[in-house]
Amino acid sequence: MTDGWAVPGFSLVRELGADASGRQVLATDELTGTKVTIRYLPPGLPRDEAFTRRMDTLAQLEDDNLVQVYQLVNEDGPGGGAAVVSEYFDGVALRRLLTDPLDPESAVVVLSDILLGLAAAHAKGVHHGDVTPDRVLIAPDGRAKLADLGLAVVQGRGAPAGNPAYQAPERWHGSPQSERADLYAATAVFVECLTGRRLFPATSTSGLGKAHNNSPVPVSDVPGPLRPLVLHGLAKSPDDRPGSAADFLAELDDAVSPVFGPDWEKRGRARVRELAKRAADAPLPPPPARSSFLAPKKDAAGVAQGRGRKGPLVLLGGGVAAVLVIGGVAYATKGDDTAPAVSTPSPVAVTTPPPLSSTTPPAVEPLDGPGLAGKITTAVDGKETFAIAFRRTSAKEVTSASGWVKGSDLKIAVAGPKPLTRRQVIVVSGTAHVQNGTNWQKIALGKPKTYGALAAQARWAGSLSALTDLLDETETLTRRGGTRWLGTVPDASALSDIAPGYKKPKVTYDLTIATGWLPHRLRATITAENKPKITVVITYSKWGTKVSIKPPKR
């Protein structure tokens, strides 16, 4: 809450922390029990029409590398306040992984995810404005997500909005937030991942401004093949940086694939996954000081306290050169930007950190769509109850639902375009009931532009047979990263609830499978001739939870 005001309809679970962008809490939806994160916005954050449009845009944006924004709640007048309600993301901040530098493969994986998230946001005209290790969250599966988009506030006199330690040179001269300023901040985070130290060790806001504008980019501890990427992303002039996040991502892949080998992403993500697990299991660090953007204090030897070793490489022969071994390939790194010199690892080579144990993904085996459907059907046998979060986007129309599924029955909260405000719906034995104040009324499932249409959409989303039907009709299926499956269905059937009136609809989907072949997340795109594209995102969780779903007492 802010000055006694709390977002209505949610119950506080616990405090998550506070920073310049406001106080953050974990809360539950009082209707469905769904966990959400609520950030109560500070008075200093402008909440003008542009801010509202930005939050509305984010509420319609679904991406694997962005924390989903649900809604902006803004209550003007005495006793009111403003807050952003977002998905509760079970992850740890990247900052907690940086007690030591990351190995290069892991650092590149993190940067790749950041760039993917930025590309999705930039495509909708939204700039992050405050990319830092505190706003990059690492999921248990090793995937990174960007949080708190568009919530940057001024943190020091004379500084631009956002954490001054990561702001691009032009921002210090009053230039607005931009895509290339985001890329600069992302690269600064990348350097911190590689070295364990912030880009510039300034101890004041003015010192940071001077360093970002005038100091050369420190690359001595950055592995040789990655230095051109760092120098490109941290160019003083925005015109000299990559043109877009997508361009930078392609440049990154072109640079590292020949050096790291074909499986670098798999190895790097496995290590990030294990580091995230260790960080999640470790005691929480003490809250940061108010001026947390400043560099950590150094001891008499000039080493940052609490940062472990100084960099990712150990210099040999008086600091003249070093050998870095990545993925079984060794290359020399010197004080210049020369190309990698491939050699055979020697007994004195500095190797990457020892392999970390990780959760084993489902066993790799060739599967077609029906085969994957069979795996899922077996996995969910006996787990008829689960939670869903569902979102459907078509043109400018967005509908959503969240709650519980038990067999073919549902207890959910649904919402759609005005006047279909958020209400609770119970579907039992094919009959739907919608709550209206203290009363309940029966509704016809599927009736257009009513709660019946929203209930039918939610019933489709919560139907495992709808998912397995898609898999059975799949024409092409590709496995990515062990847990993701990309498929196409050229002529899908049984989509009348989710895509009424679509003849011969084509579906492309991205399905993530959790441990034990349980579905975790489905993102599907439905297209048909002369019809708007429909995007559906469904998250499945809490399999086998005991839940009772009964008709409401009338």
What does this structure look like?
The structure is a single chain. The chain has three domains: about 10-85, Phosphorylase Kinase, domain 1; about 95-300, Transferase(Phosphotransferase), domain 1 (Orthogonal Bundle); about 370-540, outer membrane lipoprotein receptor (LolB), chain A (Clam). About 25% of the residues lie in helices and about 25% in strands. The two termini are about 35 Å apart. It contains ten helices and 23 strands. By secondary structure, the chain is α+β, with helices and mostly antiparallel strands. It has helices at about 50-60, 105-125, 180-195, 205-215, 225-235, 245-260, 265-280, 370-380, 450-460, 465-470, and strands at about 10-20, 20-30, 35-40, 70-75, 80-85, 90-95, 135-140, 145, 320-325, 330-335, 340-345, 350, 385-395, 395-405, 410-415, 425-430, 430-435, 440-445, 475-480, 485-490, 505-515, 520-525, 535-540. The strands form four sheets. An eleven-stranded antiparallel sheet has the order 18-17-16-15-14-13-23-22-21-20-19, covered by helices on one side. A five-stranded antiparallel sheet has the order 1-2-3-5-4, covered by helices on one side. It has a four-stranded mixed sheet with strand order 11-10-9-12, with no helix packed on it.
Summarize the SSE layout with pairings.
Elements: E1 10-19, E2 22-29, E3 35-40, H1 49-59, E4 69-75, E5 81-87, E6 92-93, H2 104-123, E7 136-138, E8 144-146, H3 179-195, H4 205-214, H5 227-233, H6 245-260, H7 264-281, E9 322-326, E10 329-333, E11 342-343, E12 350-351, H8 369-380, E13 385-394, E14 397-406, E15 409-415, E16 423-428, E17 431-436, E18 439-443, H9 451-461, H10 464-472, E19 476-480, E20 484-489, E21 506-513, E22 519-527, E23 534-541
Parallel strand pairs: 9-12
Antiparallel strand pairs: 1-2, 2-3, 3-5, 4-5, 6-7, 7-8, 9-10, 10-11, 13-14, 13-23, 14-15, 15-16, 16-17, 17-18, 19-20, 20-21, 21-22, 22-23
Helix pairs in contact: 2-3, 2-6, 2-7, 8-10
